[in-house]
Amino acid sequence: MEKMLLMLVIFISFFAMGDFLSIGLPQVCYGRYGCFDHYPPFANLLVNLPQSPEIVGAKFYLFTRENKDASSAQELDDSDLNKLTASNFNISRRTIIVCHGWTENMDGYLKWMVRLKDALLVKGDFNVILTDWSVGANQLYDQSTGNTRLVGAIAGELIQFLIYHNGNKNDLADNFYFIGFSLGAQIAGYTGTYLQAKYDKKLGRITGLDPASPFFTATDNAVKLDQGDAKYVDVIHTNMPLVGTPDRSGHTDFYPDGGSLHPGCGNDPKGKKIHKAIQPVFLSQKINQHLKLHEAKPPLVNQQSLVYQFKCDQCDEDYVGFTRRHLRQRVDEHRHTSSSIGKHFHGKHSSTPKDLTTNFTILKKCNSKVDCLICEMFFINELRPTLNVQRDSICACNHLRATEYYIKTVSEDCTNPWEGHPCGSYVSYSLGFCNSCGNGGCPLMGYRAEETKFEGEFYLNTDTWDTLCPEQTTLHG
Ligand SMILES: *[C@@H]1O[C@H](CO)[C@@H](O)[C@H](O)[C@H]1NC(C)=O
Ligand SMILES: *[C@@H]1O[C@H](CO)[C@@H](O)[C@H](O)[C@H]1NC(C)=O
Q: Which part of the chain is the GIY-YIG domain (predicted)?
């Protein structure tokens, strides 16, 4: 009897521990937003259930041509009619909701949200609503991923609220357009699903800007953005496959430059000093243990994967990265001009850096590349991700290119904008097998994709774009 009581106490205290709460309980319920559980297709226990609406703190700010600037933003929510009637919201305009991704806030990295809002208000007389779920988005990646389900529901309630108080015709949803980046693109998918399931309303359009990959790729359509989430879904893939999803996610999927790497990204990293000290995970491990010259290669190449931090006193290039090879090789590379660190030394100091082993810290050893990617993202989150320009980092240039390309298609009247070519793969496209537009035709990437709504996979190279429409903003400038 006593033993059972003890077990019960242990059992209860296990579930009472904050961190285990969302994993231990089968579901969480948040009023009108509904319940969230770990039943299939949401069975991935690595993804936490959403935190409460109070914690996640999703906020929506309306901008129109009458109130364009940050100082005149009008906050809307899904229950305050006074705020709605006092605002400039007008149901006869198209309503465009914009949503950021992991570790961002309402400005977006490089202020992409603000720049997009400004460009949209020049382009048309729209209601532009910027979503700010920065508290929910600035958690560890597994928690922020879980929070997207709740933010999708909250955005769905807001849209229902706006429609309900303006005649409540279902087809008003046609005039709602959701643009989301990374995790924000996955939120768009949840909003679309929520509106259909609960209110029988279908969003007019979703644009997914490099929808997030970890925990979404190869999942059920209910878990990720897909073409069922709006009447028209177009997607721009820019950093496949680890950061942005490689899955077909819309009616029209664009793969500029093949969808992974882009001109101007990664070749000339302008790293900045990271000012925050971080706690190495393997405090007790000496770097030299990982640098043994003749270390036997383990049976699985993946077992080598590790995330490291490089600290550089002399070259302003601290960063977090990961490697699947021997760390020793990575260290060696920094001595040569093939790496930006080595190049810096040869160029600025006319020297080769000496022993750099002490400048590396192993942050985590991981079992696979995907594990490493997620861990890397956790560490970069700690370090202020805007400062990290490593190629595979969540906030890297390539990932953000989706926002840059999209903004350009809104803001510039190019006579010859980016045309996507139907093709089976980027290799075929690059070899010149897909120069014609076939029977279906060539859709325009970005804002104007809706003019044709051609379905399929479309390839293009962006390199000619700059000569047609010069860059107005410099990435990482
Ligand atoms: C709403 O927008 C429409 C179309 O732009 C316009 O005709 C109408 O006057 C606006 N309504 C209000 C109340 O401003
Ligand atoms: C590497 O670390 C050592 C010791 O902290 C430091 O003196 C040196 O400047 C660092 N090397 C570079 C290239 O920053």
A: 303-389
Give the pair of three-digit tokens for residue 312: 């550089």
pLDDT band for 14, please (50, 70, 90 cuts): very low
Query: d(Cα 313, Cα 330) in Å, to the nearest integer?
Result: 18
229 is in an annotated binding site: yes
Tokens of 473: 């903003």
Tell me: the pLDDT tens digits for 265-308?
653 333 222 222 222 333 223 344 444 444 444 443 334 678 88
Residues 6+ apart with CB under 8 A from 19: none
* Residues 6+ positions from 71 with CB-CB distance below 8 Å: none
**317 close to 271: Cβ distance less than 8 angstroms:** yes
- 398-432 residue pLDDT tens: 888 899 899 989 987 655 578 999 999 999 998 99
Among protein residues, the one whose CA lies closest to atom 12 of ligand 1: 90
Q: d(Cα 75, Cα 84) in Å, to the nearest integer?
A: 9
Given CA atoms 423, 239, 366, 139 in this order, what sign does their dihedral have? negative
Pocket test for ligand 2, best of 313, 334, 346 (most atoms within 8 A of CB): 313
Pair type for strands 306-310 and 319-323: antiparallel
